[in-house]
Design goal:
The structure holds two protein chains of two kinds.
Chain A lengths: L7 E4 L1 E4 L6 H4 L19 H4 L21 E4 L11 H9 L3 E4 L4 H10 L2 E4 L2 H13 L5 E4 L4 E4 L5 E3 L4 H9 L3 H6 L2 H9 L4
Parallel strand pairs in A: 2-3, 3-4, 4-5
Antiparallel strand pairs in A: 1-6, 6-7, 7-8
Helix pairs in contact in A: 3-4
Chain B lengths: L6 H7 L2 E4 L5 E4 L2 E4 L5 H10 L9 E4 L16 H17 L2 E3 L9 H7 L8 E4 L13 E4 L2 H10 L1 E4 L3 E8 L8 H12 L7 E6 L1 H5 L2 H9 L8 E3 L4 H7 L8 H11 L12 E6 L6 E3 L7 E3 L14 H11 L14 E4 L1 H4 L2 H11 L9 E4 L4 H9 L2 H7 L25 E4 L14 E4 L2 H10 L5 H9 L1
Parallel strand pairs in B: 3-4, 3-6, 4-5, 6-7, 9-10, 9-12, 10-11, 15-16, 15-17, 17-18
Antiparallel strand pairs in B: 1-2, 2-8, 13-14
Helix pairs in contact in B: 2-5, 6-8, 13-16
The chains are: A alpha/beta, B alpha/beta.
The complex binds iron/sulfur cluster.
Iron/sulfur cluster binds next to helix 4 and helix 12 of chain B.
Chain lengths: 198, 471
Amino acid sequence: MAYDKFNILTSSAVPLPIENVDTDQIIPARFLKATERKGFGDNLFRDWRYNNDGSEKKDFVLNNPIYSGRILVGGKNFGSGSSREHAAWAVYDYGFRCVVSSFFADIFRNNCLNIGVLPVQVSADFLDDVFRAIEKDPNTQFEVNLPNQTITIKSTGAQESFDINAYKKANLLNGFDDIDYLLNITDQITEFASDRPL
Amino acid sequence: MTAKKTLFDKVWDSHVVQHIENGPDVLFIDRHMVHEVTSPVAFLGIKNRGIKVMYPEKTFATADHNTPTINQHLPVEDPLSANQLKMLEENANEFGISYWGLGHEKNGIVHVVGPEYGITQPGATIVCGDSHTSTHGAFGAIAFGIGTSEVEMVLATQCIMQTKPKSMRINVEGQLNFGVTPKDVALYIISQLSTSGATGYFVEYAGQVFRDMSMEGRMTVCNLSIEMGARGGMIAPDEKTFDYVKGREFTPTGEAWEKAMAYWKTLPTDEGATFDKEITFNASDIEPMITYGTNPGMGIGISSGIPKADSLEGGVATYQKSLQYMNFNEGDSMMGKKIDFVFLGSCTNGRIEDFRLFTSLVKGRKKADNVTAWLVPGSHKVEKAIKDEGLLDILNEAGFELREPGCSACLAMNDDKVPAGKYAVSTSNRNFEGRQGPGARTLLASPLVAAAAAVTGKVTDPRELMEMQTA
Ligand code: SF4
C-alpha cells in the first residue's frame, strides 16, 4: 500500500513514558475484525483512552488537549508482543508519522517501516531529554530529518543521529514499498524456486 | 576448509534469493500459513494490484483466531467474525489456496495444524501473520511472524525482505526437576532475559534439556521465543524430529524422503561455529513458574515472592502500574491466591501432551466450584486424541468439559473472554493488560500449574498434589 513520502518532519510530540508498551495496548484484539485498512486510529490505545462506557479517560495523554503533533514518544521496548500490523496502522491512521523510543520490538519496527511510519531509536539519555523538553513545554518542536538521519530538539538544539538501512531509507523518501521491488525481480525468484525441494 | 556454520546460518543462507547492499536480504519462503485476521487486507492488496498468488500450493489457510469454541456447526454469531471467515474462504477459493475452515477435519490453530500435517519441515522457511509462528522452529525450520504487508509480499512473490538477525544460543544443561515442564523452562528463560532480552536475535536452543524434550515440548519452547523479543527460536533436528515428521500428509515420501533426510542431517550447528551471544542455564535452577505481572518476563518460581521494586534496575513506575493492574503487592507470595478461571489451550500448550499432563493431575479430583475452566484443544486432531485416549472420560469425571478447537481465550477475539478484574491461570503466552478480555488478569503457567489451580481454586504448587498422588 502506497503512503506519503517522508522527508523532514517538524512537529510537537505526544509523550507516553511507559516501558514495554505492547501491541495489544496499541490496538486490542477485538478491533482486529476489519477486512479493510480503515478507521484504526479511533481505537489506538483504546483501553487506556476510554472507559468501558465509551467516555474518555481524562488522565490519558491522547485525551489531554495540551499535547498534539505527529510524533509519538514511547518508553523502552515499544511495540512488543503480537505481530499485528494493525498496531502500526492505528498509529499512522491517528496521525503519527514518527515514533521515538530508546528501543523497539523487531516486528513492530518492520511493520512501521513497511507502511511509512518512521521508528527513530535514540539513546536512553536522549529519550529522557525529549520527555523533559515536552514536560517543560508541550509545544516544543522536534525536527526529524530523514535525509540526515537526525532528530533535534529545536528549543535546546540537542541533536542525535539514528540508524536506518539505506534501502528502507530510500523507500521512505520515495514512498515505495517492498512489493514494488519484489515484483521487479520475479524472474529471479522463479528461477530460485525451480530447484527448491519443497 | 569451509567456514563453520550455525543451524540458523545454514537455513537462512540457502534461502537468500538476493542480497541488497546496505539493505535487507530477499528471502524465499517455503511455507506460508494464513488465518482470517491478518490476511484480508493482504488479499485486497493483491486484488488492487491485479496480480495472482505466485505459488498458491505453498500457502495454507486455516480459521482459528475468531472462531467460537462451542457450537461450531452453527453459523458464527458475531457478524464481524463471520465476515472475516467468509472473506478468508472466498480469498482461498479465488486464489487456489487450500482452506481448512470451521468444521473441516483438519481445522485448528495454525501453529498446531502445520506440524500435524507435515507442512512444517526441517530446513524450511515458514512465515505467518502471527508472532507465534516461531513454534515451527522446533523442527529446525526458520519460522517467524510477519505483518500484513509482508503477508501480501509472500502471496505476491513468495519472498519477503528481511535483514538477517544476529544469532544467540541458549543452552540449558542437566535434567529438569520433578514437576517442571517445557513451559516452565521457557518462562524461566524469559524471566532471566526480560521481554526484550533477545530482540534482534534468532535463538537456537541447545543442551541436554532440549535434546531430552519431546517434539511437543520443543514446540512450546520455540513458541515462546517471541516473548523475549527474539525473531524466532529453533532446535536442531534429530531422530525425534524425523520420527515425528515421517508419514504425514505433506511430508515427502520415497526417494524425496531419502533426499530430504540426507539434507536435514547436515543442518545441525557445526562444532566450533560461533554465535553473537551465548548463554547457559542449569536445569536444576528451574521450578514450576507463574507470572504475576503484565508481560511474560514477569515470572517467578511458584514458591518465591513477587520481587520488590527496589530490586529492579529502573522502570519502577511501569512496574508499579503493572502490579496495580494485577492488584498484587510487592513481596506477596503467589501461592494461595484465589483464581476464577483456568484456560488450557493455545498454540503454546494446546497439544495432546498438554492435555495428558493436565489430566494426570486432575484425575480422581474435582474441579473447584469457584473456577470456570476452558479446555480448548489446539486442533480437531488433538480433540480426537483426547477422546481416543480416554482423557475425556477422566476430565468429565472430574467436572471438566472440553470445548472445540481454536485460539479462544488466548486473545479473546471470540466469546471466551475473562471478565474485568477476574484472575485466570492460563497456559497461553501473553499476560498483557486486557489480552484475555478488557480488565482481565492473567497468570501464565504450565498445564500442571493450571490443573493444580483448577482443582484447588487457588494458585497451588502442583508438586504437592503430585507427591500426594505418588505417595
Ligand atoms: S493461540 Fe494465541 S498466540 Fe497462538 S495463534 Fe492463536 S492467537 Fe496467536
